[in-house]
Amino acid sequence: MCLSPVFGRLAVAGGLAAMTAACGGRSPVAPTPSPTTSPVAIMGAPRLTAGQIVAWFNGRQPRPPGAYAATVPLETMTTFFIQEGAAEGVTGDVAFMQSVVETAWFRFSGSIPASANNFAGIGATDTDPHPATFPDAGTGVRAQIQHLRAYADPSALTCTVPPLHNPCVDPRFDLVTPKGKAPTWNQMGNGNWASASTYATSILSLYTEALQYNGLR
């Protein structure tokens, strides 16, 4: 289990999504509706491409404060999420939105620096926090995707190949018990991944906004 103290990050990332209108690069749109209460599975195919995520991220108004500070360009980051998600059958487009929440739009205004390549608060527990660090951004995304699979897939019993499709880099995979205990994004928060009760809503609000921006919802 990875209980991240995301309250501060939610105020920056999720709060912006709640307070501002979704604004496409082509023309203004109505304020983003609340995310659907229908379950959004963690395991599955993405609805957004890497390019569509980039278009939404760059075209969103008003712009989040601060500068993008990740160790790789945004285009590379979104590609990592889609590719690593596809490898493990995880919705990489929603996982990217999770990282937007966790990193304050990749501005890294919280306790985990950009150099840690930790985009999901892995190890940043409420008690005795020891945030994980990864050698590069691709490894950090892979760890996040593997950790999500541990939460969502009851057949992913060990951090090995198989059941994983890439070598294990998630340092907290074995701490998720039982495996598959949270198969939907709606179940995140309240002790699953993060302690904040608004965690799932913050992620899914951004996802709804990105879908709408790209004309998918």
What characteristics describe this protein?
217 residues, mainly alpha, 6 helices, 0% strand, disordered N terminus
Report on this structure.
The radius of gyration is 16 Å and the shape is globular. It is mostly helical. The protein has helices at about 5-20, 50-60, 75-90, 90-105, 135-150, 200-215. The chain is built from six helices and no strands. The protein has one domain.
First CA to last CA: what distance? 32 Å
Coarse morphology: globular
Number of helices: 6
How many distinct folded domains?
A: 1
Cα radius of gyration in angstroms: 16 Å
Biggest sheet details = none
Low-confidence spans: 3-33
- Secondary-structure-derived class: mainly alpha
Tell me the strand percentage band. Answer: under 5%
Proportion in helices: 25-40%
Number of strand segments: 0
Return the string of H and E elements. HHHHHH
Brief account:
By secondary structure, this protein is mostly helical. The chain contains 6 helices and no strands.
Please write out the topology.
Layout: H1 7-19, H2 50-59, H3 74-88, H4 92-103, H5 137-152, H6 199-213
